[in-house]
Amino acid sequence: MSVKDKRSNCPVSCALDIWGDKWSLLIVRDLMLSNKNTYGDFLKSTERIATNILASRLQSLEEHGIITKREHPDSKAKNLYRLTPKGIDLLPILMEIYIWSDKYFTIPADIKAIFKEAKKDKSKLAKQITKELKSNLTAK
After folding, report:
1. pTM of this structure
2. Which of 13, 16, 52, 65 maximizes the CB count within 10 A of its CB?
3. What ranges do the domains of the chain cover?
4. DSSP classification of residue 81
5. What's the whole-number mean pLDDT along residues 15-42?
């Protein structure tokens, strides 16, 4: 969906127009929590996104100001994707999804360990991750 198209003025609907498809929030997750930041990195995710869908979702997330794209410093053939402050602001939503999922699904131990702290002190973990992500905004 393009930047100007929206189904309604409902805040939930407007947000879902940006990141509510099957793939966009997974791309945000990979940028946020898995240190993935190139097209090739996203293709290696366990969910196995198709290249045409990945290209479309990256373009949409960029158009909506969730991510930025720039030349990779080590290769002109690659682009480097980063979350914008608007994208970083999705962290609390992702944290809540992880906490909810832990309640109803079997979560891998490594992921469970990270979000065990979130259950105790969401604010502390959010501040820590946000600080790391914001430091990446200025990194070359």
Report:
1. 0.85
2. 16
3. 11-138
4. E
5. 93
